[in-house]
Amino acid sequence: MKNYIKIIGLFTLTILFVSCSDFLEEDVETFFTEDQVFSTEDGLEAAVNGIYQSFSAGAYHGSSIHGLVAPVSGKFYSNQGASQDATSLNCLPNNTWITRLWPQMYATINVSNTLISNIQNSELANRDIALGQAYFIRAITYFDLVRYFGGVPLITEPVTIEELNFPRNTKEAVYTQIITDLELAKQLLPEPGEYFPDRPVKTAANAILAKVYLTQASETNDMALWQLAYNEAIQVYGQYSLVPTYAELFDPSIENTSESIFEIQYAANGAVRNSDVIRMYTPKELYNYTTFGRVRPNKEVYDQHVNQYPNDPRIDVTFLADSYTKVSGANVNLYPTQINGNDGFTVLKKYLEPDFNGTATNRNFLKLRYADVLLMLAEITNELNGPTAEAYGYVNEVLARARNTVAGPTTEPADFTGLSQDEFRTRIMRERQYEMLGENHEWFDTRRRGYEYFLEEVIEAHNNFPNLGNKDFTYPVSVKNMLLPIPSTEISNNSEISQADQNPGY
Q: Is 342 helix (H, G, I), strand (E, B) or coil?
């Protein structure tokens, strides 16, 4: 069952975004007072839907994370002019995507704050589940914010547009709030199987909290944090299962599978654009509808996977390489057949959809799936105890599924075995790329191990790649790319933030 998000205005704060034909538009109007919304179970459920609507909106998950975060991660190329600064890792504070992403994330937080504020003392039967989801979404949004921008304004009460002047808090304070919210979500969310199959439950909060502790531990190598990460992730182990084949994960007719921990739900609604994921990644004229085909995996990303596992079935699921045929019958060469021009890159194949109507999609977006948790458990266990049988077991579950195809099992990717702790550490990070490329993990995974790791894994791997073409940028060697810039609009409009508060290098 897909719980279709109702597009309904709920709160007194109206958020208006700049209109542009290339981006999704968001115009939230008020139809009901807060007292009316929060006085009935149906109204409360509509309010929860409003949180997910904001979370999934174009300026956040529907478009911005693809147009901005994918290329600025250093793992993707974009041919869009508005993304050129991000693609070259010279992102500007006035980048169009940044000035949309930041306010939409805070709009999502404000919708969550409004629900939390209004139902603390509610006696409605669905109060706990609704409150748990509000804490869960607020935590995830702050978790994204703190990883993108560092310390950010911490707002936990509903505000109006006249009250949006808040100073930056420390990164530590933001993480404290994230952990507090997830602990509350764990208490309030139902157990697996006790709610809509397309909404997060208690184990989703465990999984995100494990990722929070893992991120902090990666930065500090604090063994106590690695242990906390393990304690949360192990609660999720066995509560979900990998789908039989990797290809099934990206079949547009299959959603909310046994592997899905948190899946952002999209539903086509006439001519209303709801997600640009298909338009962003699908090359022009592959199908009989208009697409952008803007965002492509970097050449070294493709070669890394092919060189590691030449016969990995995931390669064909992840990449469209060599060439494709347009609907007109014309042939288009792609990398590695050619290296120059906009088509001198492979295509990310995960989001291709022959039956897309050209505007709106039913395709969901996987924010968190069970394979991610297994890879986290493998990484955590290796950090705590070295490459033990337990650590190998988690990653090898993922590799065993990768080998499984409808035509029968393959020999690659082979199980991890015989690695030192350092070798395991290096391989598990690359394994995350092979398994989850294009699923919005690249920025986070390339930064959380520190600048030296980012320098080697992103900057040097790209700049020293022998097959760079005439559309490839040379990445700057700069620590500034560990964070995104605070948007220029925020510095201009927020009296509590000045240019002195901007992230280093911007």
A: coil
Q: Which residues contact 486 (CB under 8 A, 6 or more apart)?
A: 93, 102, 149, 168, 497, 501, 502, 503, 506
Residue 161 phi/psi, 5-degree rounding, is: -65, -20
**What confidence tens digit (pLDDT) does each residue in 337-352 have?**
999 999 999 999 999 9
Ranges of H-type helices in 201-323: 202-220, 223-236, 277-281, 299-308, 313-318
How many CB atoms lie under 10 A from the CB of residue 165? 12
Residue with tokens 């039967």: 125
Q: Residue 285 in contact with residue 328, Cβ under 8 Å? A: yes
Q: What is the dihedral of CA 276, 447, 249, 382, to 10 degrees?
A: -170
Please report where in the chains the tokens 């003392």 appear, as a residue.
121
73, 320, 460, 496 from 88: Cα distances, Å = 10, 23, 14, 31
pLDDT digits (tens, 9 = 90+) for 423-465: 999 999 999 999 999 999 999 999 999 999 999 999 999 999 9
Contact between 402 and 313 under an 8 Å Cβ cutoff? The reply is: yes
The torsion angle over the Cα atoms of residues 153, 157, 161 and 164, rounded to 10 degrees, is -20
- Other C-beta atoms closer than 10 Å to the C-beta of 162 total 6
Across the strands, what pairs with 296? 77
Residues in Cβ contact with 159 at an 8 Å cutoff, skipping those fewer than 6 apart? 13, 110, 113
379 in Cβ contact with 428 (< 8 Å)? yes
What is the model's pTM? Answer: 0.94
Strands of 350-497 (E only): list them.
Answer: 365-369
Residue 336: the pLDDT is 98
Contact 353, 361 (CB under 8 A): yes
Buried residues in 104-114 as b, exposed as e (16+ CB within 10 A): bbbbbbbbbbb
Structure tokens, 329: 């019958």
CA gap 175, 34 in Å, rounded:
29
